Give the backbone structure.
Amino acid sequence: MIPSAVMARSRRAVAALLRAISRTPEAAQLVTPPDPLADGRLAFEAMAKKARAVGIDRPLLWLSFDCDTDADAEAAERIDPWLRARGIRASYAVPGVQLEVAAGAYSRLAAVGAEFLNHGYQPHAEWREDRYHPITFYDQMSADEVLADVRRAHEAVLRVTGRAPLGFRAPHFGSFQAPQQLALLHGEAHRLGYSWCSTTVPEFGLQHGPVVRCGDMYEFPLSGSLRTPGLILDSWCHLEDRANYKLAPSYAELMKETVDFMVDNGVPGLLSYYADPAHVESQPPFFEAMEHLAARGVCNVNPGKILSDLRPGAAARTAAG
Ligand SMILES: [Zn+2]
């Protein structure tokens, strides 16, 4: 038989122990679920400071289309007028081979003012079995092969659209991010007379800001969302059916959540998003997202416009390498 005084002491000791445990951060996490947007808010606020430093004082959108398959040309021609009617002028990143296959469609888009990037020459996708598979990775090519692909693409854009491309984005650029790889591309882009590239992942933007001076070149990193700032918000990641192209509602939800946070809290920045026209054509989440951006007053820009508005004397942050 345990004496009652011992029992009381034990009970008090256990109660004290439980009180102590309940005050630990681990216990707090058990009762309060972590805020899934907390990191994103901090990341977007940190980027906003870098955006203000280059004269970006409100949320802006730069939409570009990645046109890696033959299906993208027709889809682009159908989507472009809808976007233009809402003040959104998309830029086009089309491999040289695809430009030549669908020269009619792309020259018509160029004739109504669409801007084209140099996106390499060789094809970026091939049809196998039941869907497209990515091909042509610069990290699997020699430096000379990469440079030859970039130069050949420059000529293709000039031939098909009648104008030289203004900027460059590598095929499957996420696999070509090492400082020496970016320096190779930036150097060639400079030799071709470009003033900007957009060939870096969101992590680069989180580190350096939305407009980054890299030697002779300005770099415009792609963007993530408020929920996952380091993950590109593109159409491929949100296809819930990659054989028959069905865009998931999450595409619109993440974009709307991001834009609402920026507009509601006065957080400036550049949302640099890209999509594949064939993925988003006739897909409600894409049009819902674009309507929402327009309704929230997010202005559409392109790198040339941002560079021409660059605050005098305000040097864009320089990335080492
Ligand atoms: Zn591509």
Notes: The mean pLDDT is 89. Residues 44 and 272 are 13 Å apart (CA to CA).
